[in-house]
Amino acid sequence: MNVHILRLVTGDDLRASLEAAFAELARAHGIAAACIVSAVGSLSQAVLRYADKSRGSEINGPLELLMLSGTLSADGAHLHGSVADAQGAVRGGHIMPGCTVRATCEVVIALLPGWEFRRELDVATGFRELAVKTQAAGVPPPQPSPGGGGSESGSVPPPQPSPGRGGRKKKDR
After folding, report:
1. How far apart are the C-alpha atoms of 23 and 112, rounded to whole Å?
2. Could you tell me the residue range of the domain that residue 49 belongs to?
3. Of 6, 54, 56, 77, which one has the greatest count of Cβ atoms within 10 A?
4. How far apart are CA 160 and CA 101, in angstroms?
């Protein structure tokens, strides 16, 4: 697996840092898709958007980041996570800007060479949904905006396209 390890520090915005890191990785490695493999850390504040809500809700910390999953693309991040407060109460939802790292956050990102993730308007849902394509050999991916940095190691061969659309569509948060 081709991975990038990102360690965020006090004051970093979780979502903005991941989007900036992806932009740098896309430029450095010629990728157009990545996903979160693992993430743990602490937050001083979280902003989560709950199902079927139009805005995020602030949760003041200290908080433990229990789980983070999602996709990264030139069109931005689609992230869901869960946090626990000092009493152990857990809340989860769509990760919004404003999730601030308290002490540290360790994130493992899988780079997905040969794939392209985009967000495209789906008329059925009214949201920008994930659109997945395979990249042709030798065709550079679209260039995301600047930012981020870090290190990585390992590699995997490009995937082979599968027949049909596959998968079920879900609302973009």
Report:
1. 14
2. 3-140
3. 6
4. 38
Q: How many domains does one find in the chain?
A: 1
Question: Of 157, 148, 115, which is closest to residue 25 (Cα–Cα)?
Answer: 148
CATH number (domain holding residue 7): 3.30.1330.80
Q: What angle do CA 36, 42, 43 make, to 5 degrees?
A: 95
Whole-angstrom distance, CA of residue 137 vs CA of residue 120: 23
Mean pLDDT of the chain: 83
Average pLDDT over residues 136-154: 44
Using CA atoms, how far apart are residues 140 and 130, in angstroms rounded to an integer?
20
CB 102 within 8 A of CB 42: yes
Mean local confidence (pLDDT), 70-75: 96
The two beta strands, 76-84 and 57-73, are: antiparallel
Question: Which residues are CB-neighbours of 56 under 8 A, at least 6 positions away?
Answer: 47, 48, 49, 93, 94, 96, 98
